[in-house]
Structures are given as C-alpha cells and as structure tokens.
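pasting for the record
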Amino acid sequence: MNQTVSGIDFAPALPWWLLAALAAVAVIATGFAVWRGARGAWWRAAAFAAVLLALGNPRLREETRETRPDIAVVLVDESDSTRVAGREARIAAARTAVTQRMSRLPDLETRIVAVPEAGTQGTLLWGALERALAEIPRARLAGILALTDGQAHDAPTDPAPGAPFHLLLAGRPGEIDRRIRIIEAPGFGIVGRSVEVRLVVEDLGVARADGAARLTIRRDGQAPRVESVPVGREHRVTVPIERGGPTVLELSAEVREGEVSDVNNRAVVTINGVRDRLRVLLVSGEPHAGERTWRRLLKADPNVDLVHFTILRPPEKDDLTPLNELALIAFPVRELFQVKLRDFDLVVFDRFANRGLLPPAYLRNIADYVRQGGALLMSVGPEYSGPTSLFPTPLGQVLPARPVGGGQAVAEGAFRAQVTEAGARHPVTEGLPQANQDAAPPSWGQWYRWLRAEPRAGTTVMSAPGAAPLLVLDRVGEGRVALLLSDQIWLWSRGHDGGGPQAELLRRAAHWLMREPELEEEDLSARIEGGTLSVVRRSVEPGPPPEITVTAPDGSITRHVLRPGTGGRATQDMAAGLPGVWQVSDGRRTAFAAAAAANPPEIADLRADEARLRPAVTAGGGAVRWMGAWVEPLIPDIRRVALGRDAAGPGWIGLRRNQDHTVTGVSATPLLPPWAALPLVLGLLLVGWRREGR
C-alpha cells in the first residue's frame, strides 16, 4: 500500500556550529540594543532571524512510501507427543482459528512453520523457529505463536526471540503421567545365568508418589508374571538367560487413573545371550599330520578353553617299559567321561579308535550327553571301519552314517569335496570360499582319502565322488552331531593344491554344534531398525517359503509372503511404528523383535508443560495460554499493538505493529528561497533603520 508523508526539514548552507555562533552574535547584539533602549532593536532582531532562517534553508519534504506487511510466525507442533489425549485435534483447530483471525488483520502476513517428528532427538521446536526466522527480516517480525504441548527439547536457557512470543498449550493444567524409567539394563548376559534390570515406576505431576503398582513382565512371548512394585522407588527384575541370541523383555505398568496416556507405561529391553568361555574336549586317537590343525583352530579362539589329549601309546603296544620311565599322562577316562563330561560344550574325537580305552558304559555316557544337549564332532579315518570302529558301540546310536562293510569302506584317490544342494542352503557350508557354485567345480585343493558310509540320519552338506557323504550334520534329541568322513582336511591348512577354507569350515561346524544363533539352519529371526521390521527365515528344505503371521504390540495381526533369496533365506521388510514387542511366526517357529519408542525424550514426560518455553515467553514479552475443551475460547483474541506497548492482556495477545516501509519517492520544496529571503531581510533592515532614525 502506498502513502504520502509530509514534513519540514532543514538543509543548512553553513555548518550547524557556525549557524549557532552567528545566532549567539545576533542574540548579543540584539540584547545590547534592547539594553540601550534602541528604538529599532526588535526589527533588527527580526532581520537577524530572517538571515539565520534563510541560511538554515527550511524545506517542505514529501515522501511516497510503500508499506510492507508485518510477518507473524505460527509454530505448529507435529511431534509424537501431540498425538495423545486429543492434543493433535486441538492444535489443528487452533491453527485454523489463528489463521482465520490473522487473515482479518491488516498489513499482516502469516507463515505456518511445521515442527516435525525428529526421531530420537525429541521435539526440535527452537531449531524450526530459527530456520524460519533466517528468512524473515527482523524489522517485519510481528510476533511468534507456538501451538504445542510445551515439549521443546532444544529450547535455549537465554532465548532472544526479538518479538512477542506467545505459547498456546494443548493440554490441561495439572496433568499427571505414569511412566517406566529404565535405570540400567545390560546389553548382554551369559547363557545359563541371570541378569538384573533396574527400573523405577514413577508418577509425574503428583505431590507425593506413594503406594504400589502392578508390573507385568513378559519374556520372549512366554506367559506373563506380575509383580507389585513400589511407586517412585527402584525395583530390580531378574531375567534368566536360557539361550544364545536376543532375549526380549517386555515390561508394563498398570494404568493410573487420570493419567495423560499409557504410552510410556511400557518399556522393552533386549538382552543378547552369549556363551561364557566355551569348554572343548579334544581327544586325538593317535599322532598324525592333521592333529595340529584341530589344536590350532581351537586355541586360536580366545573364548575357548581347550582340553586336549592324544593317545600316544595304545594298549596293544605294551613293550614292557617300566611305568616310572614313561613320560606319559594316564588318560583320565572316568573323570572326563563320567564326572565332568557335561561341563564340556563340545567333544571332538579326531581319529579315535575303539581299542578298549573307553568301556561301553562311558561310550553310552557320551551318547546320553549328546541326547541331552551336548555336541559331538568326529573326524574319522580308516579306524572308523573294521573292528576298531566306534559305530558298533553304544555311541553309534547317535552317529548319522554307517561305514560300509566288506573291506570297501576306505576309498583312496584324488578328489575335490563338493558342497551338496542341501549344503548350499546350510549355514555351515553356504557361501564357502572356492566352493562349487552354479555348476562350476570347486577351486580348492584335493583330498586323497575318504570313508564310504551310508547316511542314516541328518543332512549331508558335503560329498565325495559318487555323491558319497563326506560331512554329515545331525540333530539328536537336544544335542547335535557332526561326522567328517575324511582325515585329510589338514591338507587345506598346509596350502596343498591351493589350499581351502579349512579354518572357516571347522569354525562354522564347531559353532553350529554349540548352537550359535547365527548358524541355525532352521531359523526364523526378526529385528527392528529405523521403524522397519526385517524378517529372515532360513531353511535347508527346498520349496517356496510359508506365509508368516506378524502380531503387532497392539494385538493386530497381518500376514505376509516372504521373498525367496539365496542360501536358503527368505526375507520380508515391513513398517513397525508401534513401540513394544512384535511377534513373527511361520507356523513352526516364532521370533520376537523389540521396538523401542521412536523418540524416547518425547515420551519421557507426556504432561503439557510451559517450563521449557517460559524463558522465551518472558524474553519476548508474550503470554502463556491454555487451549482446549476446558478453556474458553479455544484461542485468545489477537490484536495489533504499537512498538513499546504491552503485547498481552486479559483475554488477548498482541502482535507488534512495526510500520516497516520502503521509500519510493521524495520531493523537497524550499520554504524560504534566496529570491524571497533577500527582500525580506532588506525590508526588515530598512524598517529598523527608519525606526531608529526618528
């Protein structure tokens, strides 16, 4: 809008200090004349005044101005905390009302600034305001209105908004909120032991927190247990770690009457179960070239405690040497295979022959150890066939392959081990370097001996010539067995014929036997990252994967089809926005994934509160007003106020009127031009002279 403003200014012909000196001389001269009683003194004073006025050059100045509208910033909080207790609807209604009222105010422009959800950083309201103010001239800023619940986790302690800052709160004064606050939760625990989670159930907004609350604890989807915990005091929850991998713990406090929301009444903790130092028993039946391969492999793992025995002197080699001259340690059969057998996580028999060192009762103990959850790995050579074989013993009941009789068990000749079709899907052999892939032969080194055997159970993951089983893996009861039907894997470690992935294959086999979660061949896992639920199903069984059922924390159930992948895997990703425990099932297995709150600072305290933004309101001279169904009207009246005036009062809030403008034209007309000043001065002097001459 254009407007014209008129005024009088001066453009002196002489500096102001010189005009001031001339004025002083004129005053002195006039004063002396008046003191002497000169008859033309006042006419002389008028002449002096005319001269000074002419030298000051007064002008009539006219400006044509284009006024620029002021700008009001409206911050609209869209973070997660505004979605509880009906706040989102009240903020939306207040935004509409504010926009309508401001549109009726002249010379005012409204800018809506949305404050989005900021992930794990809380509500970054002040950052959104600063970005908006960077594009607004401060001379045009009329004021700031924040439509929020008071959650502003980046508000400065000494703000300088530069204009009236008004806070319109969505909520109810004096709200209360119950929450679970995790004080300490371990990230991992030792399998077979228990860990403690320290927490406190708090009631915010109450003068005195007392009494007790029921705490529901659910672990990995099992039946919940309920404990009574004191409100406001630390409580410890004991969690047993029964298996490797993640253990998901869901905690839920009962809802308090009148609280804002129960969103923060729940907490989810994930504890990763890890095994303590693994105890491995390695028994070598005789010294041979591959014995050191096993020892180096197991000793290289700092998490493994290895007990290794080598049978140097079999019973049939009795040369009548006195015992006091033998530098040998007696094989502690009873201690190892009866007293302390179950202390070992893995038992490895390397070319161990049945020569009577282990009576049938001890071999039966080993078989029972496997059935009850133990792990057995056997690397066999020619001793596995014939009268020294362990297969006819009680241990043979848990072995997955029977040696071929008739003296045909031992086969010799150069060959390269092949990964079978099932092995390409099994985690022990899937993706092994240099393995056969896509009909291409393997590129690792050759072996020269294997044992012919008939598979009777388990999965053959590697084969010898003629599709004969070479590495067979089997589950027996609660335990696992691996049978390697060759004693020449050590050739790979020596680099013979290019070598091979000996260390990786044996490491995988050993960790599969000890039930490492990452090496489960029949497994369903789920994890949540960045609000996305990722499901991975792994199976050695061919065919399309089954449909999965996903149960959200709120109880809603959805079904999804997995996408087939490589290595026996099938995957699916889906949105997981709700915090809590998500359950995934394929009909046979069930997996759980914990989704923590997307923005923990945001839900830590759900009460609407002015405390964080009160310094900005005070610094800007604004006001705090509550909006909602409990306070009428929804928003106060909005007025324009002049600079320096109060910006708030009973029932109203004010936006500053800055009157910022741009000058588009200027004209100046002299009020006493020289052609008029000269006759005026001469006329006054003439009148004064004639007055004095009488």
